[in-house]
Design a protein that fits this description.
Low-confidence stretches: none
Strand order of the largest sheet: 1-2-3-5-4
CATH topology of the largest domain: Aminoglycoside 3'-phosphotransferase, Chain: A, domain 2
Helix content: 25-40%
Shape: globular
CATH class of the largest domain: Alpha Beta
Radius of gyration: 19 Å
Number of strands: 10
Strand content: 5-15%
Distance between the termini: 42 Å
Oligomer: single chain
CATH architecture of the largest domain: Alpha-Beta Complex
Number of domains: 2
Largest sheet: 5 strands, antiparallel
Structural class: alpha+beta
Order of helices and strands: HEEEHEEEHHHEEEEHHHH
């Protein structure tokens, strides 16, 4: 459905009249799971773009205030919960605006510093209490579960990519992860550690946003950035500062492989396919190295 400034204005006017005079501006690109709008200078509105993403609204409202004081970087702070209406039949959220530049748009970033800062954040996140917290499942799109949940996806992609990539090497990486089992107690994970969800200020990581796929389970899904973004030196810093065993890292590598194979086998219609393919092939090279 179309989610634009006019719709947001009507919802804010109806449900939060104290903010009806504030300007509303779309955030570009604004995300895939949610459409995001500035509300004045200090607030933002997040609107789930499909029903499958709406289940994350209550989760973020409930758990972000618990997580925030226990991690060393800023995370979104819920201010208000919007109710579904006939015009927009999903819950939605108002948050405090966090200043920062998405990592994908930032320049002059020291990847080793980034790796150290992110490792510190994820290690702290994993120590947050898990009592009554949401276990990995459909709400997290199975992040936090074993990556074998996507084995059918991977097998289809490998078949489709035969002759275009080294499918034997890719299968070896995937099969190695499939042989592991999750034996450690479940911990908090973010679920989508990607450049668009990492904010930078003055050259350093300052905030982690979008906890829609977060939950409690296996933290391997948060390790994929070691292959998708980091170079060898940053990868080593990241790994050396994280407490996870070799099997967890094997599953993290598999999560990176899964997403990369999907992107190569099914190019997105919303991005530059050629640029996306080049970037995915570069990631694949790191995964298989």
């Amino acid at each position: 459905m179309e989610i634009d400034e006019e719709l947001v204005h009507r919802l804010v006017d109806e449900q939060f009249p104290q903010w009806r005079e504030l300007s509303i501006r779309r955030v570009v690109p604004g995300g895939w799971d949610n459409r995001t709008f500035r509300l004045g200078d200090e607030l933002l509105v997040r609107m789930p773009s499909a029903d499958g993403y709406a289940v994350a609204v209550a989760k973020e409202q409930r758990w972000l205030p618990v997580i925030a004081p226990r991690v060393p970087l800023a995370v979104p702070s819920p201010v208000a919960l919007g109710s579904p209406t006939g015009e927009f039949p999903r819950p939605w959220s108002v948050y405090r605006w966090i200043d920062g530049t998405p990592l994908g748009d930032a320049t002059h970033i020291d990847l080793q510093d980034l790796a150290a800062d992110l490792a510190g954040f994820l290690t702290s996140l994993a120590k947050v209490e898990t009592d009554a917290a949401p276990a990995a499942g459909p709400h997290s799109f199975w992040r936090g579960a074993h990556p074998r949940v996507y084995d059918d996806d991977v097998q289809r992609c490998l078949t489709a990519l035969e002759g275009r990539i080294d499918t034997a090497a890719a299968r070896a990486v995937w099969d190695a992860a499939m042989e592991t089992e999750i034996t450690a107690p479940p911990v908090w994970f973010h679920g989508d550690i990607a450049p668009g969800n990492l904010l930078v200020r003055e050259g350093r990581l300052s905030a982690v946003i979008d906890f829609g796929t977060s939950g409690v389970g296996d933290p391997a899904c948060d390790l994929a950035i070691a292959w998708t973004v980091f170079d060898d030196a940053a990868h080593e810093v990241f790994r050396s500062r994280m407490p996870w065993d070799d099997d967890t890292w094997s599953r993290g590598r598999a999560w990176a492989l899964w997403k990369t194979l999907l992107t190569l086998a099914h190019p997105s219609n919303t991005h530059d396919p050629e640029a996306e393919a080049r970037a995915s092939l570069a990631v694949l090279g790191r995964v298989l190295a």
